[in-house]
Design brief:
Blueprint: E1 3-7, H1 14-27, E2 30-35, H2 38-45, E3 51-55, H3 61-69, E4 73-76, H4 83-93, E5 96-99, H5 105-108, H6 111-116, E6 120-122, H7 131-145, E7 149-161, H8 178-182, E8 188-193, E9 196-201, H9 202-205, E10 210-212, E11 221-225, H10 232-235, E12 243-251, H11 254-264, H12 281-287, H13 298-306, H14 313-321, H15 336-347, E13 356-368, E14 371-382, H16 390-407, E15 415-417, H17 422-432, E16 440-445
Parallel strand pairs: 1-2, 1-4, 2-3, 4-5, 5-6, 6-15, 7-12
Antiparallel strand pairs: 7-13, 8-9, 10-11, 11-12, 13-14, 14-16
């Protein structure tokens, strides 16, 4: 009898746990779901005959290793920086490991050890990264197989609120890890455009967002460059491609307003605000403006700092967040980023009836038979409510399907990998169609 261990029972685990429990019933597998909130783990298992819940403080090494030692496949839904601790245990105890997070350098360094032990370590097996890799590689391989030459590849993904549920001026709510949203884009984005390297530092990233069109979806959208797109040139088999860009989708207007928060300094997580629990949000904002900024009020001086009109849409968004209110922060010695996150947790909370929406679009420019073509592949998925989000489905289902493939012996690639191999993407994408995950495609000539 095979044993599956799921570490973490948060929102993104819901669809994964539901899937593996269903498969466990069919295949006579056992599923253990552990979390530092035992009640949450119990809710996710819901009394299933093939499942059990367990309490785990992941920093208690012996407890962690005891649970991992009983498993055949481990799925880690921990914060990304903790995956490496689980990975070392999986190497030591000879267990397969699956995560949805970006694969770190430290994780890649375990590749030889994993391969020598015949272990499968699969990272980036969620939505973005995950489904984006698989759906992109499927089309890249198809284009190459019919003799096409790729000249540009752009890929955009966004976890948004469905248009009919937009009820705030930001047109955004949390559908995934709030901390990752607040810290998004920090570092320097890197990509290629028309054969030239492009770098966008964090202080310019959101100001450089570009509009994009999503056919068949209400609303206007924009995208900003995502991390280091250049990492995927070799992985995607696109080493010499002139244009390669991965980006994140937001509703139009979000990026310029978020850029205001960056310019003020509210996304900085590197230092604490001393005695922040005694401050009001108004006092915090006042602390960010000097005598050189013109205006009779803090709001006017912030507008001057940003170089915008005090009655602008951006200032309306900042005021709606409560940044100029006399309400106390009530977080002791918190960083600006933590203060902002705590404020947004209330303002951007997903209500029970709210539906989220995932947008993903790939754009492939290629040459075939002497003609230039553009293939656009688009995925739109809406959630059913805060209890069943599209984000949770699209993060969890690929991991669940991959667990099944591993236990069925259908995966031959050992070591540390991401899901760009045909033996992975073909069965996973095919089964995802059963859950409504299908791309619509448009392939057209460019320039007549």
């Amino acid at each position: 009898m095979s044993n599956i261990l799921v570490i973490g029972a948060g929102r993104s685990a819901t669809a994964l746990i539901g899937y593996v429990l269903t498969q466990a019933k069919k295949h006579n597998w056992n599923v253990t779901v552990c979390d530092n909130n035992l009640e949450l783990a119990q809710q996710k298992v819901a009394g299933h005959s093939n499942g059990r819940a367990a309490w785990l403080d992941v920093m208690k090494v012996n407890d962690r290793r005891d649970l991992i030692g009983r498993a055949d496949v481990v799925v880690s839904l921990l914060p990304a920086f903790l995956h490496i601790e689980v990975a070392h245990d999986c190497i030591r105890l000879k267990k397969h490991l699956i995560t949805a997070s970006y694969v770190s350098k430290e994780m890649y360094q375990l590749g030889d050890d994993a391969a020598e032990r015949d272990l499968i370590f699969m990272g980036e097996m969620g939505l973005d990264p995950g489904i984006d890799h698989m759906s992109a590689m499927q089309k890249i391989d198809e284009i190459k197989e019919k003799g096409g030459k790729l000249t540009a590849f752009r890929s955009y993904t966004g976890g948004l609120i469905a248009p009919e549920c937009n009820d705030n001026p930001w047109n955004y709510k949390f559908t995934w890890n709030p901390r990752n949203v607040v810290l998004a884009g920090q570092g320097t984005a890197q990509y290629r455009e028309d054969g030239k390297l492009k770098y966008i530092p964090y202080n310019r990233l959101f100001a450089d967002a570009v509009p994009i069109e999503i056919d068949g979806v209400a609303g206007e959208y924009e995208a900003y460059a995502n991390r280091d797109s250049l990492l995927y040139r070799v992985t995607y088999g696109l080493k010499g491609i002139p244009t390669l860009l991965r980006g994140t989708i937001r509703n139009r207007g979000y990026c310029e307003a978020w850029n205001a928060l960056v310019k003020i300094g509210l996304t900085d997580g590197s230092y604490p605000i001393l005695h922040s629990h005694k401050l009001t949000y108004h006092a915090l904002m006042e602390a960010y403006v000097g005598s050189e900024h013109k205006g009779n009020t803090v709001k006017e001086r912030i507008a001057d700092l940003l170089g915008i009109d005090v009655k602008s849409d951006i200032m309306h968004k900042l005021e709606w967040l409560g940044l100029f209110s006399k309400k106390k922060i009530n977080l002791q010695n918190a960083t600006p980023a933590l203060i902002l996150e705590n404020l947004l947790l209330d303002k951007w909370k997903l209500q029970p009836e709210d539906k989220d929406m995932i947008l993903m679009q790939h754009q492939f420019e290629y040459e075939l038979d002497g003609k230039k073509r553009l293939l656009t592949s688009t995925l739109v998925m809406r959630g059913a409510g805060s209890h069943d989000t599209a984000m949770a489905r699209l993060v969890g289902l690929p991991m669940g399907i991959f667990v099944k493939l591993v236990l069925e012996g259908r995966i031959t690639q050992k070591g540390v990998n991401i899901p760009v191999m045909k033996e992975v993407y073909e069965p996973v994408l095919e089964e995802l169609k059963e859950f409504g995950v299908e791309f619509t495609e448009k392939d057209e000539l460019v320039g007549g």
